[in-house]
Amino acid sequence: MSRVEVEISRKNKELLEEFSMSISVDRSLSNNTLSAYVSDLKKLISFCENKDLTTLTKTTILEFINNLNTLGLSPRSSARIISSIKTFYKHQILNETMDSNPMQSIKTPKLSKKLPDVLSYDEILKMMELIDYTKLAGERDKTIVMLLYGGGLRVSELVSLKVNDLFVDEGFVKVKGKGSKERLVPIGIKTINQVSYYVESYRNKFAKPGSKNYLILNQRGGSLSRVSVFNLIKKLATEAGIKKAISPHTLRHSFATTLIEAGANLRAVQQMLGHESITTTEIYTHLDKAYLKTVIEQFHPRA
């Protein structure tokens, strides 16, 4: 912000603490999301020179929002800050700490949905072909790619998987997602075979007592970091000559897109991805017109 951040008053500290605790319980939010909410509200506090948040008027908040536009923030960052403030004041109304909501008629800017980069099946295969299987970590790296692409896992979910989260006979893995919510994710026979082979041929031989039963291990026998997974995927994509913005999340996007384009039910994909809202899953419905035309011709009785 353009102003020097001021020390937060006792009243505002209490408001932030109560708000943070309440939404943490109500929404099962991650620590990162909670930190973002509080950080956004602190920007407003700083701008308003530590005035009690429950006394701010619509005019004052609009001045703050207009100031955001002069700071060179991306539209997405500005929209997130406005959304955080709207959530805070909605919470105050529900708790009856305020009689009127200063954000009531202030709209959150609508953002165009940026379609994520996705990888084709051939690109995934090319990346796996470039894994160095002469190294001890080769089968582990292949397992990482197959779980990200074959199960649509987030990288945080992948590195936190435990061996006892595997239900290979049933064809599922138990995943702990955002807000510590657990879900069962189905995996295909190829991924099941690869995971089983990796566990027997690599993981169980190199696991150290401190590995805490984690599935994906580093070469010292401890749990693998998210950064290491990111570096692996970037390295394989670069070596494969793929000119896209690639990260482990790209494989999750590719998993979802593959299913949707093959005609999978949107609700089923939502459950597999662990999305709280189906609107998040709908971003993957960026299908070509030819496919949509075949759906109409196949299923609509009067088409």
Structure description:
By secondary structure, this protein is mainly alpha-helical. 54% of the residues lie in helices and 4% in strands. The protein has helices spanning 10-27, 31-47, 58-68, 75-94, 121-129, 138-151, 155-159, 189-206, 226-239, 248-261, 266-273, 278-281, 289-299; strands spanning 166-167, 172-176, 182-186. Strands 1-2-3 form a three-stranded antiparallel β-sheet. Strand 1 (166-167) and strand 2 form a beta hairpin. The longest helix has 20 residues, at 75-94. The protein is globular and about 65 Å long. The termini are far apart. Residues 287-291 have low confidence and may be disordered.
What are the salient characteristics of this protein?
3-stranded antiparallel β-sheet, 303 residues, mainly alpha
* Poorly predicted runs: 287-291
Number of DSSP-assigned strands = 3
How much is the average pLDDT?
86
Spatial gap, N to C terminus: 56 Å
Helix count? 13
Please summarize what this structure is.
With 303 residues, this protein is mostly helical. Helix content is 54%, strand content 4%. The longest helix has 20 residues.
